[in-house]
Design a protein that fits this description.
single chain; alpha/beta; TIM Barrel; eight-stranded parallel beta barrel; 12 helices; globular; binds 2-phosphoglycolic acid
């Protein structure tokens, strides 16, 4: 069954006090207000993970990590590995966010390894794809997405592809206040589903959750989530405000 998911990517935000306030507000509001079956995920910086888990205990809210390394362990100062995350009971891991593709020079080959690593340790990867403004203006967005999907995911078994979440995040819409229109987003979401169907099967493609990310706010979420191939969102800025984040969760059909 295709799952509807709203995940809040806190990025590099969240002092201890901020984390406690935001996580407890989200957990409480979630309990009182969110009853549409959407899976809600909070993704704080690594150091906040256990605190968010502590506050989310007993609720249905899941917790994720913003990254993982391709190796299990070793001399990689400042990094975090999938087995470490798994041992802490983390549910999801974002892989290939455009900010990591850009600032950490992560490419599809490395990201394919990280996705495999997440699966080996039973974490659900949220694999991000998206074109830059330049790529869209040159009309290369379809090609870029196809390459990110095929190089990043097509090594996966049929079992593992079904346990992978994909997020389409046009780089030009992230943190800019500029959202893809619902039709622009739907066009890419349906392309992604089509690529999965061609490589695996229509049945598998129909089961996969494809999230939209890029300036999703309470006032545009319902419209985006009404599209047939948009199965929720990956939320940056608006996930730092509990009211906005919960309103976005409630906008899922
Ligand atoms: P934004 O970020 O909602 O602030 O645009 C989305 C993301 O980067 O996941």
């Amino acid at each position: 069954m295709r799952k509807y998911i709203v995940a809040g990517n806190w990025k590099m935000n969240g002092t201890l006090a901020d984390t406690q306030k935001l996580a407890s507000e989200v957990v409480n509001m979630h309990k009182d207000e969110v009853n549409n079956g959407v899976e809600v995920v909070m993704i704080p910086p690594y150091i906040g993970i256990t605190e968010v888990q502590r506050l989310a205990k007993g609720s249905e809210v899941k917790v994720g990590s913003q990254n993982c390394h391709k190796e299990d362990s070793g001399a990689y100062t400042g990094e975090i590995s999938a087995p470490i995350l798994a041992s802490y009971g983390v549910d999801y891991v974002i892989i290939g966010h455009s900010e990591r593709r850009e600032y950490q020079s992560e490419d599809n080959t490395l990201l394919a390894q990280k996705v495999g690593q997440a699966h080996r340790h039973h974490l659900t990867p949220i694999y991000c794809v998206g074109e830059t403004l330049e790529e869209r203006e040159e009309n290369r967005h379809f090609e870029v997405i196809e390459q990110q999907i095929s190089e990043g995911l097509f090594h996966l078994s049929t079992d593992n592809i079904q346990r992978t979440v994909i997020a389409y995040e046009p780089v030009w819409a992230i943190g800019t206040g500029k959202t893809a229109s619902k039709d622009e987003a739907q066009e890419i979401h349906s392309l992604i589903r089509d690529l999965i169907a061609r490589r695996y099967s229509q049945h598998i493609a129909d089961e996969i959750s494809i999230l939209y990310g890029g300036s999703v706010k309470p006032n545009n979420a319902a419209e985006l989530f009404s599209m047939p191939d948009i199965d929720g969102g990956l939320i940056g800025g608006a996930s730092l405000n509990s009211r906005d984040f919960i309103d976005i969760c409630k906008a899922v059909k």
